[in-house]
Amino acid sequence: MLGSVARKLRIFGFDTLYIAHADDSEILKIGVDQRRVILTADKELFKRIVKADAAGVLVSGVSELEDLVHILSKNGITSLGEQGIGSRCSMCNGLLEDRRPDQVRENIPLKVTVNHAKFFQCADCGKVYWEGSHLRRIRALIKSVDSRLARAAATT
Ligand SMILES: [Zn+2]
After folding, report:
1. Helix/strand/coil for 23
2. How far apart are CA 40 and CA 71, in angstroms?
3. How far is the CA of 20 from the centre of ligand 1 (A)?
4. CB atoms inside a 10 Å sphere around CB 87
5. What spacing in Å lies between the alpha carbon of 127 and ligand 1's midpoint?
6. What separation in Å is there between the alpha carbon of 139 and the centre of ligand 1?
7. Nearest to 25 by CA among 57, 54, 59, 3
8. 6: Cα separation from own chain's centroid
9. Distance between CA 64 and CA 71 in Å, rounded?
10. Which of 21, 84, 87, 139 is deepest in the core (most CB within 10 A)?
11. What is residue 152's three-state secondary structure?
């Protein structure tokens, strides 16, 4: 359920693990061992996180935008801005590296190499990214997240 939220957090540049199948004890252990903030929509798991004095945020899972704003403000983040955007692979959390068109030609459609000059490739899974409509949508999302964060900060 939080898979899409996890992908967005990675696009924003946050180091984000997504664990779809694991029992609560395992998730709790990974969170504590790796000093991660555990995001969950599971109230029982959240109770255990609080009890274990681990870091966690309970999300509603109703609206992605609300969840993102809630997660960020709970972690003291008041603005996303442009920093970190596009530094991580949304699929696997790997770090992206700059590529020239000739380095990625074999991995993408010809039309894309003709129309774009800047590319990024995931160091872990090899997925190739480029600036396009996807990034424009992300920028629009960042804008609405930031304006809600600003509003939340103003009311507390
Ligand atoms: Zn990747």
Report:
1. coil
2. 10
3. 17
4. 16
5. 6
6. 21
7. 54
8. 5
9. 10
10. 87
11. helix
Say how many residues make up the chain. Answer: 156
Q: How far is the CA of 93 from the centre of ligand 1 (A)?
A: 6
The radius of gyration of the chain from alpha carbons, rounded to an integer in Å, stands at: 17
Closest CA relative to residue 113, chosen from 103, 123, 98: 103
- Ligand 1 centroid to Cα of residue 153, in Å, is 34
- Ligand 1 centroid, distance to 110 Cα (angstroms): 21
- Digit-by-digit pLDDT tens for the chain (156 residues) are 689 999 999 999 999 999 988 999 999 999 999 999 999 999 999 999 999 999 999 999 889 999 999 999 999 999 998 778 889 999 999 999 999 999 998 888 888 888 888 899 999 999 999 887 777 888 899 999 999 999 988 876
